Amino acid sequence: MIAAEFLCIFIVLFTIFILGRAEVYIVTVEGEPIISYRGGDNGFEATAVESDEKIDTTSELVTSYARHLEKKHDMLLGLLFERDTYKKLYSYKHLINGFAVHITPDQAEILQRAPGVKSVERDWKVRRLTTHTPEFLGLPTGVWPTGGGFDRAGEDIVIGFVDSGIYPHHPSFGSHHTDPYGPVPKYRGKCEVDPDTKRSFCNGKIIGAQHFAEAAIAARAFNPAVDFASPLDGDGHGSHTAAIAAGNNGIPVRMHGHEFGRASGMAPRARIAVYKALYRLFGGFVADVVAAIDQAVHDGVDILSLSVGPNSPPATTKTTFLNPFDVTLLAAVKAGVFVAQAAGNGGPFPKTLVSYSPWITTVAAAIDDRRYKNHLNLGNGKILAGIGLSPATHGNRTFTLVAANDVLLDSSVMKYSASDCQRPEVLNKNLVEGNILLCGYSFNFVTGTASIKKVSETAKSLGAAGFVLAVENVSPGTKFDPVPVGIPGILITDVTKSMDLVDYYNTSTTRDWTGRVKSFKGTGTIGDGLMPILHKSAPQVALFSARGPNIKDFSFQDADLLKPDILAPGSLIWAAWSPNGTDEANFVGEGFALISGTSMAAPHIAGIAALVKQKHPYWSPAAIKSALMTTTTKLDRASRPLQAQQYSETEAMKLVTATPFDYGSGHVNPRAALDPGLIFDAGLIRLLINLFDLSCLAPIYFLTSPNLFSDRLRGLLGILVHDSRHRHSRDKKLHKPTLQLLNGPPV
Ligand SMILES: *[C@@H]1O[C@H](CO)[C@@H](O)[C@H](O)[C@H]1NC(C)=O
Ligand SMILES: *[C@@H]1O[C@H](CO)[C@@H](O)[C@H](O)[C@H]1NC(C)=O
Ligand SMILES: *[C@@H]1O[C@H](CO)[C@@H](O)[C@H](O)[C@H]1NC(C)=O
User: Fold this and answer.
1) Which residues pair with 259 in a beta bridge?
2) Helix H or strand E segment including 396
3) Which helix or strand (DSSP H or E) is residue 690 part of?
4) What is the whole-number distance in angstroms between the Cα of residue 389 and the centre of ligand 3?
5) In sequence order, what are the beta bridge partners of 339?
6) Closest Cα partner for 714 from 732, 693, 733, 688?
């Protein structure tokens, strides 16, 4: 009895021990995925097609080969491991042949040595890389009319979003006020049903909606209460990126009773296919993202928008291009899907890109021409510039300034810091009402535990006429963005100006010997910050936009491949937001958000690519990429060379002349991209040449193990090697060289 109990405890402990150490691994095995299978395996017929055809994923041929691959994955695992010591999360069959599995490192080693296994990589994490822009890009006048107007722009093109999901009830995604959407026969994605409302996520505009969380669940990072086991956007990011690329046209951006113009996607008639694989706080896991991409391509999307990148170069793959994520994307491109990926937000420092491969269009972020400015007028005549996306204080009146620390209700019980104005209940309403409340910008704002939204709510609930948030010390490189607020409010970001304010306040405020205020005499007014100012010195490369050179491996050696590819607007972009999102403190519960990131730049390119694809339905992804890249501009609105934001020696911000490491080929020009004249349909052959050059520059990797090329590269890229041999030039319009060289090792 005792022994049995002991054994039980032992087993339980042992299981916990094993599970505790278990991690998600992405495994690729021998044998072609559906996309490149040319027959020969157990009598299964070929599933691969010529590059300009689409695979019919519903055919008996494809589904039976898919079942066959999945059975082989299960058999391999069943042969190697005891039942219940592992959990297979996904079988990847379409773009790569492999699976994601939750196992211990010891089991991973066994798997690595097993015959037929090509690679075993520990899963790694990815993160989100966080509307006026259609006019800035010349879409309404220059581009949409050629496609039949905004109500046809992007018609029947399906854009897949691998992101944090969607808020389906947003007007940017509604289908009530538009021409009815017909079916898109080529697209076969599923629509999950909302577990709460029991309604489908799809409405014609949204044409597919699925979520992928097996790896997040296995890693115990998934919390259904806030992450939602459905395509519902628990963040806001996914709704934002989908609206930038394909949101409806003319949607009024209303917040706090003010309309900030009208928003539109780049291709407002394009369809949205949602593949949720990113979650709040932790981001996502590559195993889920790969499953999402595999499904998206299987379902038949035309374009993939990826505002997601790895937290760091994949540690276990020798070259950045050959990790399972990038290889999956290569197969997606081979299947005819154009892929736009955010460059990353690690700028302005070199080698910060998180999008590596030649087959992907890597998008850097630009500041467009719209800037918001505001100012605070003090009673002593000084005018302090600041950031405040707010209405002005009322009429010609001036208002008394009261500092939060001087209007505390009971200064002896101070559980919370009062000066950052996050809690109205610690302040004396009688002293604040009708006055301008002065607050301090503490470190809590940087960490996200304090927000400008809360300051404005505090000021409003106390009946204040407005608020001022003074930055008195700042870590170098801190970036301040305007936050839309409902009452007059301004952030004084310049430390010396904040000092001017504090000095003025101190000298005009009289105190008794205990320091208590006897009378407040300082006054001020806050200007109107709602009207944007349009600048000619645009576009500029945004400070945060990741910079080249591209790296080829974990040791950060240079890759011989220019990245990023193209620059698109990505700074302070207005677009749809999910009221269910909780990560961005300033936009909790709101229907729109004004945010920045290469995350916002990538969907601009995805949407413009949809317009190009609509006009030129038979162009390959490489042709679309070429059209976009050969028609860019390297000049700003004032016809000067593009500039880039950089840090000066003192870590203040300065402007320098931008280089291709900042902007790639230059800033996107949609009108020209629709009519590029010459296109380089370099296609896969060019990609391979790039890889080949790269491999020559990486002699260590390939020389030390010449068979790696045939084993690993041919294995991973086998599709390409086959392709260059079997290609018979059906497409006479475009010259596609064949490359026999690639059938043998390059060294
Ligand atoms: C503000 O003052 C000017 C000049 O004193 C006056 O003409 C104007 O009507 C005033 N505006 C308001 C809103 O009181
Ligand atoms: C303003 O006055 C307060 C209270 O007397 C004092 O703590 C603070 O140091 C003063 N600030 C400046 C900048 O003089
Ligand atoms: C998402 O937000 C909407 C609007 O605030 C709300 O009605 C709905 O209940 C929320 N859904 C969940 C699952 O929290």
Assistant:
1) 254
2) none
3) helix 683-697
4) 27
5) 304
6) 688
Whole-number Å distance between alpha carbons of 547 and 687: 21
> Residues 153-174: pLDDT tens digits?
889 999 999 999 999 999 999 9
Domains and CATH numbers, the chain: 2-122 (no CATH), 126-370+535-681 (3.40.50.200), 373-531 (3.50.30.30), 684-743 (no CATH)
CA of 165, nearest ligand number: 3
With a 6 Å cutoff on the Cβ, whether 396 touches ligand 1 is: yes
What pLDDT does 549 receive?
83
Smallest CA-to-CA distance from 662 within 348, 342, 310, 361 is with 348
* Main-chain dihedrals φ then ψ at residue 402, nearest 5 degrees: -130, 125
- For 477, 498, 499, the CA distances from 473, given in Å and listed in that order, are 12, 9, 10
Closest atom of ligand 1 to CA, residue 396: 1
Token pair in block for residue 353? 């890109």
Of 94, 132, 237, 667, catalytic: 237
CA angle at residue 92 from 224 to 355, to 5 degrees? Answer: 80
Active site residue 237: yes
**3-class SS of residue 605:** helix
Task: Supply the residue whose CA is at minimum distance from atom 1 of ligand 3.
Answer: 580
The answer to whether 122 touches 324, Cβ cutoff 8 Å, is no
Instruction: Write down the residue that tokens 């800033």 correspond to.
Output: 667
3-state secondary structure of 511: strand
Specify the 3-state DSSP secondary structure of 722.
helix
- pTM of the predicted structure, to 2 decimals: 0.84
Q: pLDDT tens digit string along 36-47?
A: 898 888 888 888
Tally DSSP H helices, then E strands, for the chain.
21, 32
